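Bug #77: duplicate submission created two jobs. Keeping one. Sequence:
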Amino acid sequence: MPVKLRITLLFCLIVFVILAMVCATVFYFSYTERAHNIQTRLTNRAITLARLLGQRQVFDPSLIRKIDSSTSLSLKDKTFQAYDYLNNRVYSYSDALVDTLSVDTLILDDARVKGTLFFKIGNKEAVAYHYVNPTTRIVVITAAYDEEGKNKIRELSNILWFSFLSGILIAFVGGYFFSDRLLRPIKKIADDINDISAHNLSGRISTGEVKDEWFYLSETLNRLLNRLQDSFETQRRFVSNASHELSTPLTAISSQLEVSLQKSREAQQYRRVMESVYQDVRHLSKLTQTLLEFAQASGDPGGLNILPVRMDEILMSLPAEMKKSNPEFLVILSFDVMPADEQKLIVFGNAELLFTAIKNIVSNACKYSNDHKAVIKLKAEGDTINIAIIDKGMGIPEPELKYIFQPFYRVNNTAQQTGFGLGLSLANRIIKLHKGNITVTSTPGEGTEFLITLPTEKNSNPLLTHY
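Kept job's structure:
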């Protein structure tokens, strides 16, 4: 069922309940008021008649009939009767001569017990009133057809039914147009989204000028589209750059082998070709390993081995690791006053990934510094651990700082150095995976400082966030 129709029916149901309650309440109180009114009038007439009959020395039955016939009472088909204590009818009057009431003796007995009794007889409403004085004990019956009151109730019923049905019809029509107007922005948002595809992610949803819920929804979807566009663009650049980086050594290998196979050569020449191919294969293997690490850091953290990790222990293993990769690289550890509580040095995470992230940054610091030296500072502050990696290298131009964490991006002044442009991107993803953050400050010609901030164990959930 369309949402528009569901809203309309729900609106109609609410109006139906409200109108039904209002109409039923009005009808009920009007009906009970009419019944109370006729009962009061009949009771008053019965009391008056009983008092007249109780003064027989003054009013005889014929005189009372004349009084009854001349009494102005807006009731139709009036009938008045009186019975003594032996249930003998001692008085009778009716508008129509042949109109008499057959009253059951049980009614008379009940009236004597209760004093006043209301009942219906035929289409008339009646009152039985028990009157007692020192000389008289009678039960007076007054009955009449309340034509005026019932006509008013009937007219009121027609008016209420007309109002009820008209209200439902108006509610349905109004609810339909209301829901159409309410859902029109949703349709427009859906139409705008349908015009957006993977090949056309630049389109955005019109938010309008009114700051309402639809504006918030449109803004949220636009922010989502911005993230998707950035992700698609990043993926496109990654695939393009990865394909280029992988094809370069493969092309070199293929070309060298093809040339070497064109004719017979000496063993020394074959050896030089094999050494060159071996270097390309090592380059290709290293690139493949880096891409695998990059994919692991971009994957689901639920599949990682998450354990408490002491960051000082990871940092202390870096000097030897850097020496192993290049004997000229020098790493200096400069730890501030170590906290008494060792928990302030522990984070939840994957030790191998954290080591890889910090190693990549330290390796860049050593590689792009003239003295091949990097200084690592560790400081525990509150619920965070700060790791600063400082070098005195060539620095990074400010316009390029915002791009250094993109995959395969390399600063222009580092083109002469070997590398793939994946180290910083990989480090950033690993730190983000551990709910941390990396900030960079750099001055060209003076050096660069990377600051890594990680939450400590008590401020970190073992289930890391997905980045």
